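Ticket #333: bound-state structure for NAP.
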Amino acid sequence: MKAIAIEQFGDKNVFQPMDISIPCIEANQVLIRVAATSINPVDIKIRQGLVADIAPDFPAILHGDVAGVIEAVGNEVTKFKVGDEVYGCAGGVKGMGGALAEYMVADVDLIAHKPKSLSMLETATLPLVSITAWEGLIDRAKVQAGQKVLIYGGTGGVGHIAVQLAKWVGAEVYATVSSEEKADIVLNLGADVAINYRQTSVEEFVAEYTNDCGFDIVFDTVGNDNLQNAFQAAKLNGTVISTVSLSKQDLTLLHSKGLTLHLVYMLIPMLWNSNRTYHGQILSRVADLVEAGHVHPLLNSKLFSFIDVGTAHAYAESGTATGKIALKAAFND
Ligand SMILES: NC(=O)c1ccc[n+]([C@@H]2O[C@H](COP(=O)([O-])OP(=O)(O)OC[C@H]3O[C@@H](n4cnc5c(N)ncnc54)[C@H](OP(=O)(O)O)[C@@H]3O)[C@@H](O)[C@H]2O)c1
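RESOLUTION: The complex was predicted; output attached.
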Protein backbone atom coordinates (compact mmCIF):
# COMPACT_ATOMS: atom_id res chain seq x y z
CA MET A 1 0.00 0.00 0.00
CA LYS A 2 1.00 3.63 -0.34
CA ALA A 3 1.89 5.41 2.89
CA ILE A 4 3.52 8.60 4.05
CA ALA A 5 6.00 7.63 6.74
CA ILE A 6 9.01 8.96 8.63
CA GLU A 7 12.34 7.18 9.13
CA GLN A 8 13.72 9.78 11.54
CA PHE A 9 12.39 12.55 13.75
CA GLY A 10 12.67 16.11 12.50
CA ASP A 11 11.00 18.97 10.67
CA LYS A 12 8.15 18.85 8.15
CA ASN A 13 10.47 17.42 5.48
CA VAL A 14 10.88 14.04 7.19
CA PHE A 15 7.62 12.77 5.69
CA GLN A 16 8.32 10.49 2.70
CA PRO A 17 5.99 8.54 0.37
CA MET A 18 6.67 4.82 0.71
CA ASP A 19 5.30 1.46 -0.42
CA ILE A 20 4.60 -0.71 2.61
CA SER A 21 2.89 -4.11 2.90
CA ILE A 22 -0.78 -3.98 3.84
CA PRO A 23 -0.82 -4.95 7.52
CA CYS A 24 -2.56 -8.20 8.58
CA ILE A 25 -5.49 -8.00 10.98
CA GLU A 26 -6.00 -10.00 14.14
CA ALA A 27 -9.30 -11.44 15.40
CA ASN A 28 -10.42 -8.25 17.18
CA GLN A 29 -9.24 -5.82 14.50
CA VAL A 30 -10.54 -4.28 11.28
CA LEU A 31 -8.73 -3.03 8.21
CA ILE A 32 -9.88 0.49 7.33
CA ARG A 33 -9.49 1.97 3.85
CA VAL A 34 -8.48 5.43 5.02
CA ALA A 35 -10.44 8.39 3.62
CA ALA A 36 -9.13 11.17 5.87
CA THR A 37 -7.13 12.07 8.94
CA SER A 38 -6.53 15.25 10.95
CA ILE A 39 -3.61 16.84 12.76
CA ASN A 40 -3.37 16.87 16.54
CA PRO A 41 -0.53 18.51 18.49
CA VAL A 42 0.65 15.05 19.59
CA ASP A 43 1.27 14.07 15.94
CA ILE A 44 3.58 17.07 15.63
CA LYS A 45 5.34 16.29 18.92
CA ILE A 46 5.88 12.69 17.78
CA ARG A 47 7.25 13.83 14.39
CA GLN A 48 9.61 16.25 16.16
CA GLY A 49 10.90 13.49 18.46
CA LEU A 50 9.72 15.37 21.56
CA VAL A 51 7.85 12.29 22.81
CA ALA A 52 10.01 9.57 21.24
CA ASP A 53 8.96 7.04 23.89
CA ILE A 54 5.42 6.92 22.48
CA ALA A 55 6.37 7.02 18.77
CA PRO A 56 5.72 4.07 16.46
CA ASP A 57 8.83 2.21 15.24
CA PHE A 58 10.48 3.43 12.00
CA PRO A 59 9.37 3.55 9.30
CA ALA A 60 6.65 5.19 11.35
CA ILE A 61 3.18 5.95 10.00
CA LEU A 62 1.83 8.83 12.10
CA HIS A 63 -1.61 10.29 12.92
CA GLY A 64 -4.16 8.68 15.21
CA ASP A 65 -7.37 10.20 13.87
CA VAL A 66 -8.99 8.31 11.02
CA ALA A 67 -12.22 8.24 9.04
CA GLY A 68 -12.74 5.59 6.41
CA VAL A 69 -14.49 2.46 5.20
CA ILE A 70 -14.01 -1.04 6.56
CA GLU A 71 -12.22 -3.24 4.04
CA ALA A 72 -11.87 -6.42 6.13
CA VAL A 73 -12.87 -7.65 9.58
CA GLY A 74 -11.16 -10.10 11.95
CA ASN A 75 -12.76 -13.42 12.96
CA GLU A 76 -14.21 -12.15 16.23
CA VAL A 77 -15.62 -8.85 14.97
CA THR A 78 -19.41 -8.70 15.14
CA LYS A 79 -20.15 -4.97 15.57
CA PHE A 80 -18.87 -3.94 12.13
CA LYS A 81 -18.96 -5.35 8.62
CA VAL A 82 -17.13 -4.70 5.37
CA GLY A 83 -18.34 -1.43 3.85
CA ASP A 84 -19.21 0.28 7.15
CA GLU A 85 -18.10 3.91 7.45
CA VAL A 86 -16.21 4.34 10.71
CA TYR A 87 -14.03 6.74 12.67
CA GLY A 88 -11.66 6.60 15.59
CA CYS A 89 -8.37 7.53 17.16
CA ALA A 90 -6.72 4.20 16.63
CA GLY A 91 -2.96 4.37 16.14
CA GLY A 92 0.01 6.50 15.20
CA VAL A 93 1.62 5.70 18.56
CA LYS A 94 3.94 2.99 19.86
CA GLY A 95 3.00 -0.44 18.54
CA MET A 96 0.20 0.86 16.30
CA GLY A 97 0.43 2.14 12.74
CA GLY A 98 -1.24 5.45 11.97
CA ALA A 99 -3.66 6.82 9.41
CA LEU A 100 -1.28 8.35 6.83
CA ALA A 101 -1.64 5.34 4.54
CA GLU A 102 -4.09 3.68 2.20
CA TYR A 103 -5.05 1.23 4.94
CA MET A 104 -4.95 1.34 8.72
CA VAL A 105 -5.46 -1.53 11.14
CA ALA A 106 -7.70 -0.60 14.07
CA ASP A 107 -8.63 -2.37 17.27
CA VAL A 108 -12.40 -2.71 16.91
CA ASP A 109 -12.88 -1.34 20.44
CA LEU A 110 -11.40 2.04 19.47
CA ILE A 111 -13.78 2.85 16.61
CA ALA A 112 -17.43 3.70 16.05
CA HIS A 113 -19.77 4.22 13.13
CA LYS A 114 -19.17 7.59 11.52
CA PRO A 115 -21.82 10.33 11.91
CA LYS A 116 -23.78 10.11 8.66
CA SER A 117 -24.33 13.84 8.32
CA LEU A 118 -20.61 14.68 8.20
CA SER A 119 -18.09 14.33 5.41
CA MET A 120 -15.09 12.05 5.90
CA LEU A 121 -12.87 15.13 6.33
CA GLU A 122 -15.11 16.64 9.01
CA THR A 123 -15.39 13.28 10.76
CA ALA A 124 -11.61 12.81 10.87
CA THR A 125 -11.26 15.97 12.96
CA LEU A 126 -13.34 14.60 15.81
CA PRO A 127 -11.98 11.48 17.49
CA LEU A 128 -8.97 12.52 19.62
CA VAL A 129 -10.37 15.89 20.66
CA SER A 130 -13.87 14.57 21.38
CA ILE A 131 -12.58 11.75 23.56
CA THR A 132 -10.36 14.22 25.45
CA ALA A 133 -13.15 16.75 25.99
CA TRP A 134 -15.53 13.96 27.07
CA GLU A 135 -13.09 12.41 29.54
CA GLY A 136 -12.32 15.82 31.01
CA LEU A 137 -15.76 17.35 31.33
CA ILE A 138 -18.17 14.44 31.57
CA ASP A 139 -16.11 11.75 33.32
CA ARG A 140 -13.71 13.69 35.50
CA ALA A 141 -15.41 17.03 36.25
CA LYS A 142 -18.92 15.52 36.05
CA VAL A 143 -20.22 18.79 34.64
CA GLN A 144 -23.83 19.61 35.61
CA ALA A 145 -26.53 21.87 34.20
CA GLY A 146 -26.28 25.42 35.55
CA GLN A 147 -22.60 25.24 36.48
CA LYS A 148 -20.31 28.02 35.32
CA VAL A 149 -17.67 26.43 33.08
CA LEU A 150 -14.63 28.28 31.74
CA ILE A 151 -12.92 26.75 28.70
CA TYR A 152 -9.40 27.97 27.96
CA GLY A 153 -8.77 27.68 24.19
CA GLY A 154 -12.41 27.87 23.09
CA THR A 155 -11.70 27.58 19.36
CA GLY A 156 -8.94 24.98 19.77
CA GLY A 157 -9.32 21.31 18.92
CA VAL A 158 -10.25 20.13 22.40
CA GLY A 159 -11.76 23.46 23.41
CA HIS A 160 -14.37 23.74 20.65
CA ILE A 161 -15.75 20.31 21.51
CA ALA A 162 -15.61 21.07 25.24
CA VAL A 163 -17.70 24.22 24.62
CA GLN A 164 -20.35 22.17 22.82
CA LEU A 165 -20.41 19.32 25.36
CA ALA A 166 -20.73 21.75 28.26
CA LYS A 167 -23.59 23.49 26.48
CA TRP A 168 -25.29 20.18 25.70
CA VAL A 169 -25.25 19.35 29.43
CA GLY A 170 -26.81 22.73 30.19
CA ALA A 171 -23.85 24.54 31.72
CA GLU A 172 -23.18 28.27 31.44
CA VAL A 173 -20.20 28.37 29.12
CA TYR A 174 -17.41 30.95 29.07
CA ALA A 175 -14.66 30.47 26.50
CA THR A 176 -11.34 32.27 26.06
CA VAL A 177 -10.24 33.50 22.63
CA SER A 178 -7.52 35.76 21.22
CA SER A 179 -9.52 37.78 18.66
CA GLU A 180 -12.93 39.14 17.64
CA GLU A 181 -13.14 36.57 14.84
CA LYS A 182 -12.61 33.72 17.32
CA ALA A 183 -15.12 35.31 19.70
CA ASP A 184 -17.76 35.04 16.95
CA ILE A 185 -16.81 31.41 16.38
CA VAL A 186 -17.20 30.35 20.03
CA LEU A 187 -20.49 32.22 20.33
CA ASN A 188 -21.72 30.40 17.23
CA LEU A 189 -20.65 27.11 18.81
CA GLY A 190 -22.96 27.93 21.72
CA ALA A 191 -20.74 29.61 24.31
CA ASP A 192 -22.62 32.15 26.40
CA VAL A 193 -19.65 34.51 26.70
CA ALA A 194 -16.39 34.88 24.78
CA ILE A 195 -13.49 36.31 26.80
CA ASN A 196 -10.53 37.84 25.00
CA TYR A 197 -7.71 36.77 27.32
CA ARG A 198 -5.36 39.26 25.69
CA GLN A 199 -7.57 42.18 26.69
CA THR A 200 -9.06 41.03 29.99
CA SER A 201 -7.17 39.82 33.06
CA VAL A 202 -8.29 36.82 35.08
CA GLU A 203 -9.20 39.12 38.00
CA GLU A 204 -11.35 41.25 35.69
CA PHE A 205 -13.35 38.45 34.11
CA VAL A 206 -13.75 36.53 37.38
CA ALA A 207 -15.16 39.71 38.90
CA GLU A 208 -17.40 40.46 35.91
CA TYR A 209 -18.86 37.00 35.30
CA THR A 210 -18.74 35.29 38.70
CA ASN A 211 -19.03 38.19 41.15
CA ASP A 212 -15.47 37.44 42.31
CA CYS A 213 -16.42 33.86 43.26
CA GLY A 214 -14.75 31.95 40.40
CA PHE A 215 -15.93 29.27 37.99
CA ASP A 216 -17.21 25.85 39.07
CA ILE A 217 -15.07 24.14 36.43
CA VAL A 218 -12.07 25.42 34.47
CA PHE A 219 -11.01 23.30 31.48
CA ASP A 220 -7.47 24.35 30.62
CA THR A 221 -6.38 23.12 27.17
CA VAL A 222 -3.41 25.52 27.16
CA GLY A 223 -1.75 24.13 30.25
CA ASN A 224 1.73 24.44 31.71
CA ASP A 225 2.11 28.03 33.01
CA ASN A 226 -1.52 28.82 32.12
CA LEU A 227 -2.47 26.38 34.88
CA GLN A 228 -1.86 29.22 37.36
CA ASN A 229 -4.54 31.27 35.55
CA ALA A 230 -6.84 28.27 35.68
CA PHE A 231 -6.27 27.88 39.45
CA GLN A 232 -6.94 31.58 39.88
CA ALA A 233 -10.17 31.45 37.85
CA ALA A 234 -11.65 28.47 39.72
CA LYS A 235 -13.99 28.95 42.69
CA LEU A 236 -13.24 27.65 46.20
CA ASN A 237 -13.40 23.83 46.11
CA GLY A 238 -13.80 24.04 42.33
CA THR A 239 -12.43 21.77 39.63
CA VAL A 240 -9.64 22.27 37.12
CA ILE A 241 -9.02 19.94 34.18
CA SER A 242 -5.75 20.02 32.28
CA THR A 243 -4.62 18.34 29.09
CA VAL A 244 -1.06 19.72 29.32
CA SER A 245 0.86 19.50 32.58
CA LEU A 246 4.41 18.78 31.47
CA SER A 247 5.89 21.42 33.74
CA LYS A 248 6.76 22.22 37.32
CA GLN A 249 3.99 24.24 38.95
CA ASP A 250 3.42 25.85 42.32
CA LEU A 251 0.43 24.08 43.93
CA THR A 252 -0.19 26.78 46.54
CA LEU A 253 -3.43 28.05 44.97
CA LEU A 254 -4.63 24.50 44.41
CA HIS A 255 -4.12 23.90 48.13
CA SER A 256 -5.41 27.18 49.52
CA LYS A 257 -8.60 27.06 47.43
CA GLY A 258 -9.20 23.33 47.97
CA LEU A 259 -9.30 22.71 44.24
CA THR A 260 -9.47 19.35 42.51
CA LEU A 261 -7.13 18.96 39.55
CA HIS A 262 -7.82 16.31 36.90
CA LEU A 263 -5.20 15.43 34.30
CA VAL A 264 -6.52 13.79 31.15
CA TYR A 265 -4.27 11.61 28.99
CA MET A 266 -6.40 10.09 26.26
CA LEU A 267 -3.60 7.97 24.78
CA ILE A 268 -3.63 5.60 27.79
CA PRO A 269 -6.03 3.01 26.29
CA MET A 270 -3.89 2.80 23.14
CA LEU A 271 -0.51 2.83 24.87
CA TRP A 272 -1.45 0.40 27.64
CA ASN A 273 -4.19 -1.63 25.90
CA SER A 274 -6.49 -0.69 28.74
CA ASN A 275 -10.26 -0.11 28.57
CA ARG A 276 -10.22 0.59 24.82
CA THR A 277 -13.91 -0.27 24.59
CA TYR A 278 -14.72 2.97 26.36
CA HIS A 279 -13.23 5.06 23.55
CA GLY A 280 -15.46 3.34 20.99
CA GLN A 281 -18.42 4.00 23.29
CA ILE A 282 -17.58 7.71 23.64
CA LEU A 283 -17.35 8.01 19.86
CA SER A 284 -20.76 6.34 19.43
CA ARG A 285 -22.22 8.91 21.84
CA VAL A 286 -20.46 11.74 20.02
CA ALA A 287 -21.82 10.51 16.67
CA ASP A 288 -25.33 10.63 18.19
CA LEU A 289 -24.68 14.18 19.45
CA VAL A 290 -23.53 15.21 15.98
CA GLU A 291 -26.69 13.78 14.41
CA ALA A 292 -28.82 15.55 17.05
CA GLY A 293 -27.14 18.87 16.22
CA HIS A 294 -25.32 19.28 19.54
CA VAL A 295 -21.76 18.85 18.25
CA HIS A 296 -20.26 20.16 15.06
CA PRO A 297 -16.60 20.11 14.06
CA LEU A 298 -14.71 23.31 13.36
CA LEU A 299 -12.86 22.50 10.14
CA ASN A 300 -10.08 24.76 8.89
CA SER A 301 -10.85 26.06 5.41
CA LYS A 302 -7.54 24.87 3.90
CA LEU A 303 -7.73 21.28 2.72
CA PHE A 304 -4.63 19.13 2.32
CA SER A 305 -3.84 15.74 0.79
CA PHE A 306 -1.67 13.14 2.49
CA ILE A 307 1.14 14.00 0.09
CA ASP A 308 1.07 17.55 1.53
CA VAL A 309 1.27 16.45 5.16
CA GLY A 310 4.57 18.29 5.74
CA THR A 311 3.03 21.57 4.59
CA ALA A 312 -0.04 20.90 6.70
CA HIS A 313 2.13 20.28 9.80
CA ALA A 314 4.01 23.54 9.16
CA TYR A 315 0.68 25.37 8.89
CA ALA A 316 -0.49 23.84 12.18
CA GLU A 317 2.80 24.78 13.85
CA SER A 318 2.54 28.37 12.59
CA GLY A 319 -0.18 29.04 15.15
CA THR A 320 -2.20 30.95 12.55
CA ALA A 321 -4.70 28.21 11.69
CA THR A 322 -8.22 28.39 13.08
CA GLY A 323 -10.07 25.09 13.36
CA LYS A 324 -8.90 21.54 12.84
CA ILE A 325 -6.70 20.75 9.87
CA ALA A 326 -7.91 17.73 7.91
CA LEU A 327 -6.12 15.76 5.20
CA LYS A 328 -7.64 13.72 2.39
CA ALA A 329 -6.19 10.32 1.54
CA ALA A 330 -4.49 11.15 -1.77
CA PHE A 331 -0.89 10.23 -2.52
CA ASN A 332 -0.17 12.10 -5.77
CA ASP A 333 0.49 15.80 -6.42
N1 LIG B 1 -3.50 14.86 27.48
C1 LIG B 1 -4.30 14.56 26.46
O1 LIG B 1 -4.94 13.51 26.39
C2 LIG B 1 -4.44 15.56 25.36
C3 LIG B 1 -5.41 15.40 24.37
C4 LIG B 1 -5.56 16.39 23.41
C5 LIG B 1 -4.71 17.48 23.42
N2 LIG B 1 -3.76 17.56 24.35
C6 LIG B 1 -2.87 18.73 24.42
O2 LIG B 1 -3.71 19.83 24.72
C7 LIG B 1 -3.27 20.98 24.04
C8 LIG B 1 -4.40 21.53 23.22
O3 LIG B 1 -4.71 20.64 22.18
P1 LIG B 1 -5.64 21.14 21.00
O4 LIG B 1 -5.74 20.04 20.02
O5 LIG B 1 -6.89 21.71 21.56
O6 LIG B 1 -4.70 22.32 20.43
P2 LIG B 1 -5.09 23.58 19.55
O7 LIG B 1 -6.13 23.22 18.57
O8 LIG B 1 -3.80 24.13 19.09
O9 LIG B 1 -5.75 24.59 20.57
C9 LIG B 1 -5.04 25.26 21.56
C10 LIG B 1 -5.76 26.59 21.84
O10 LIG B 1 -5.13 27.28 22.89
C11 LIG B 1 -5.29 28.68 22.67
N3 LIG B 1 -4.17 29.34 23.34
C12 LIG B 1 -2.85 29.31 23.02
N4 LIG B 1 -2.14 30.01 23.90
C13 LIG B 1 -3.02 30.51 24.80
C14 LIG B 1 -2.90 31.31 25.99
N5 LIG B 1 -1.72 31.75 26.40
N6 LIG B 1 -4.02 31.57 26.68
C15 LIG B 1 -5.23 31.14 26.28
N7 LIG B 1 -5.40 30.37 25.16
C16 LIG B 1 -4.31 30.07 24.45
C17 LIG B 1 -5.27 28.86 21.16
O11 LIG B 1 -6.24 29.80 20.71
P3 LIG B 1 -6.17 31.35 20.83
O12 LIG B 1 -6.11 31.93 19.45
O13 LIG B 1 -7.42 31.68 21.51
O14 LIG B 1 -4.93 31.70 21.62
C18 LIG B 1 -5.77 27.50 20.65
O15 LIG B 1 -7.10 27.56 20.22
C19 LIG B 1 -2.03 20.55 23.23
O16 LIG B 1 -0.87 20.83 23.97
C20 LIG B 1 -2.20 19.06 23.10
O17 LIG B 1 -0.98 18.37 22.95
C21 LIG B 1 -3.58 16.64 25.33
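RESOLUTION NOTES: The longest helix spans residues 276-291.
TICKET STATUS: resolved
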